[in-house]
Design brief:
five-stranded antiparallel sheet; four-stranded antiparallel sheet; 4 helices; globular
Length: about 200
């Protein structure tokens, strides 16, 4: 299994769910039955590995979150009041395209990847769907992959101040490295450096 294909597949799991939810909201003319969505989500969450929660925000205000338990504090939150997230939401609105960002610190604690998808009803901006995936859960998949290949990994992302390591680390031992650029749907780009220890035995 290719490391890049593995990581990209794990992240895109939540993206397809979001697209399905967007289609449902559009089919309901922007007036979705949240009880019906909750029933759907209850069965769906049992078949996903990384999904933490999904928030629905008409007019950029989170009016429903699934599951609600453990996420009550985000209900009623306006993205405009979140200085760390509002610029990304504005960019999504202006472009009309979905954005994948992260890892970022979540209101509920821990770190996550957030896939934000704008919803348009009758060609008018309705609001957005935010799908949150557990960063720690996705990393465990990569860690198991590295262990099975007797190697190590490091994930980094580009920032205005230069590359930032977001996970992993490489030991100072003889290594052979492979650097992979990871381009995810939604404009998120990481770089994965994967290393395997050289056999130095005579």
């Amino acid at each position: 299994v290719d490391a890049r294909a593995l990581l990209e597949a794990e992240v895109t799991e939540g993206i397809y769910i979001t697209i399905g939810l967007e289609s449902f909201i559009q089919s309901e003319s922007g007036q979705p039955d949240f009880e019906q969505i909750e029933s759907w989500m209850e069965s769906l969450f049992g078949h996903t590995r990384h999904l933490r929660n999904i928030g629905i925000a008409p007019d950029n205000r989170i009016s429903a979150v699934f599951p609600e338990e453990g996420n009550e504090e985000v209900i009623g939150v306006r993205y405009r009041d979140l200085p760390d997230q509002w610029p990304d939401v504005q960019e999504m609105m202006q472009s009309g395209e979905a954005r994948l960002v992260g890892p970022i610190d979540l209101i509920q604690g821990e770190r996550g990847l957030i896939y934000r998808r704008p919803v348009f009803v009758d060609n008018e901006y309705w609001g957005l769907i935010s799908t949150v995936m557990r960063f720690s859960s996705i990393l465990r998949v990569i860690e198991r992959f590295a262990e099975s290949h007797a190697g190590e990994y490091r994930l980094s992302r580009r920032t205005p101040n230069g590359p930032e390591i977001i996970a992993g680390g490489l030991e100072e031992v003889p290594m052979v490295s492979q650097s992979l650029k990871l381009d995810f749907p939604g404009g998120l780009t990481w770089r994965m450096t994967r290393s395997e220890q050289l056999d130095t035995a005579p």
